[in-house]
Amino acid sequence: MPCTRLNRLSLGPGGVLVGVPEVTERRTSTEVKYLVMAQQAGAGRRYIRAFVSGFFVAVPVTVTVLDRFAYVARVEGASMQPSLNPEGNVTGSDVVLLNRWSVRNYQVRRGDIVSVLSPKNPQQKIIKRVIALEGDFIKTLGYKNRYLRVPDGHFWIEGDHHGHSLDSNSFGPVSLGLVHGRASHIIWPPNRWQRIEPSLPPERKPLLNWHGDTTEEED
Amino acid sequence: MFRSALGKTLGFVGYTIQYGCVAHCAFEYIGEFVACSGPSMEPTITSHDVVFSERLSRHLCRIENGDIVIAKSPFDPHMNICKRVIGLEGDKVCTSGPSDVFKTHQYVPKGHVWLEGDNLRNSTDSRSYGPVPYALIRGRVCLKVTRGTSPDPSHIHLNL
């Protein structure tokens, strides 16, 4: 219970009041406890508010960046050896940076390494090399047709490690709408930091491109 | 004066980026309005109807037989098609026409769906270009906002 103690007011020389009324409050221990708890709850509420407002800024921005600009993915499997994962999973898989902005208009080049939503499993992404674009006439490796013209709006992907790769040679040409991103850099492990350049193995070049002129001699 | 103008510009840019990202997340993960054109889904959806397609079913893989979906066209990724799902992976679908004597059937491969328009006579769909990969589906149509010709101009149908 607060108690007040007033000093006695007295008149000093010149009629001026001297002595300041002093009010002291002696608090009980329970009151002190309540005060501390209220301060902590205030600080806690401030922290929660800051966290929630930060969360609602950070999550949409992160999701938008991952969907539209860049994506980071770990490469698993041996289907792109020796370009990616040259030692398999023994020393750790490669991690690549996927550029999603460059494929927003579905423009890919022959020789690019791209990530594609798998036609066999819509929740899985596969990383392969683009071998041929729409209109190209190619020779396949183990597909049901020996020679094939890639239909409009489709492209042909293959893994560099032939025979250990689930690619267009098993499920046929892939629709351009399934392309997810273009692998531009290898960013892990650090001794394998490099920019990925588009390169097409010469024996896999299309026989005819869609302008009708031959790209290699057939023998 | 220059400093305050710069501060205000940066604040404005920051807010624009933040709201743009929220809008992207809403359109990508919740749903969007789509204007349909073409006769292939009559009488369910007529040309120039606006529909609302929700994205949650596609991301959670809950598209079922009988749903109307919006998908990217397999032959032109810039174009979208609006058709009904007739068969999921593993289903047996009939590929011959109604006037054929011998019925032919096909099994829908893994990871694909079979799409057909409601207006069977005037629709190019899986009967001509084969099964469509599931990952090309963009969303499931759940609401239709009809325009103009009906007596109640803002008539909303709810098809769940």
Automatic annotation (TrEMBL), chain A:
List the Gene Ontology MF annotations in alphabetical order: serine-type endopeptidase activity
CDD domains referenced in this protein's UniProt entry, alphabetically: S26_SPase_I (cd06530)
Q: How does it sit in the membrane?
A: Single-pass membrane protein
Which Gene3D superfamilies does its entry note?
A: Umud Fragment, subunit A (2.10.109.10)
Q: Which GO terms describe its cellular component?
A: mitochondrial inner membrane peptidase complex
Keyword set includes rRNA-binding: no
Q: Where are the transmembrane segments?
A: 47-66
> Is Hydrolase one of the keywords UniProt gives this record?
yes
Keywords for this protein: Hydrolase, Membrane, Mitochondrion, Mitochondrion inner membrane, Protease, Transmembrane, Transmembrane helix
Q: What is the similarity comment for this entry? A: Belongs to the peptidase S26 family. IMP2 subfamily.
Its quaternary structure? Heterodimer of 2 subunits, IMMPL1 and IMMPL2.
| Protein name (database record) | Mitochondrial inner membrane protease subunit 2
UniProtKB/TrEMBL annotation, chain B:
| Name assigned to this protein | Mitochondrial inner membrane protease subunit
Q: Does the record bear Electron transport in its keywords? A: no
Instruction: List, alphabetically, the Pfam families matched.
Output: Peptidase_S26
Source taxon at top rank: Eukaryota
Write out the annotated subcellular location.
Answer: Mitochondrion inner membrane
Its Enzyme Commission number(s) read 3.4.21.-
Classification via Gene3D superfamilies? Umud Fragment, subunit A (2.10.109.10)
Where is it predominantly found?
A: mitochondrion
Any single biological process term in GO: protein processing involved in protein targeting to mitochondrion
GO molecular-function annotation terms? serine-type endopeptidase activity
Q: How does it assemble?
A: Heterodimer of 2 subunits, IMMPL1 and IMMPL2.
Q: Would the keyword Transcription be found if you checked this record's keyword annotation?
A: no
Keywords on record:
Hydrolase, Membrane, Mitochondrion, Mitochondrion inner membrane, Protease
Q: Which InterPro entries match?
A: LexA/Signal_pep-like_sf, Mito_IMP1_subunit, Pept_S26A_signal_pept_1, Peptidase_S26
Active site per UniProt: 40, 83
**Domain Peptidase S26 stretches:** 19-96, 102-143
